[in-house]
Amino acid sequence: TEFVMANLFFFAIVLVAGARLLHRMPPPTGTANAIKFLLALGTILWAGYKLPQILLQFLADKRRGTLEVQLADALAIISSGLKGGYSFVQGLSMAADQLPAPVNGEFQRVIRLIQLGLDTPRALEQMAQRINSYDYDMTVSATNIQLSSGGNLSSLLETIAETIRDRIRLRRDISALTAQGRISGGIL
């Protein structure tokens, strides 16, 4: 609701600014002027409605990317805690204390949900839904299966962390190798 209100507020500001700008334009007498007027009006309406959404999507993608990069380090910390004799939730708490934002906030929210009585698998699933990332979905699914069936969770988390690091490295390599082609395509 906050974003909808901010979007409507921005739309109203752009609409007022656009109305003042269009008021300065000569009245649309000919066909060409009418088309220019309609294009300007359409651009103003589109910008007022879409720009906040584009900005929000950009910020969400940036946050998701940061969370994916931090996940490998978080899994390494949790795995080390498990090897040291801590429980999974204690390892999660250690990761939340040692890592910077935004992953520490997500882990603290999971810990708070667990402390309020939500079972660990459901709290982890809610985190994965909030983040909406394949890496988090994979990690949460594997962790929940391992927590319910038993086994070496520490080894599993190390394997997932290694896989995530390899995926990030591969994405960066692909991005570097295709940069020239993407720039050429954008220019064309």
Describe the protein in words.
The chain is an all-alpha fold. The protein has eight helices and no strands. The model has no long low-confidence stretch (mean pLDDT 91).
From the spread of the alpha carbons, the general shape counts as elongated
Largest sheet, if any?
none
Query: Quick one: how many beta strands?
Result: 0
Q: What average pLDDT do the residues reach?
A: 91
Structural class: mainly alpha
Tally of contiguous helical segments: 8
C-alpha Rg, in Å? Answer: 24 Å
> Proportion of β residues?
under 5%
State the distance separating the first and last CA atoms: 39 Å
* Helix-strand string: HHHHHHHH
**Unreliable segments of 5+ consecutive residues:** none
Helix content: over 70%
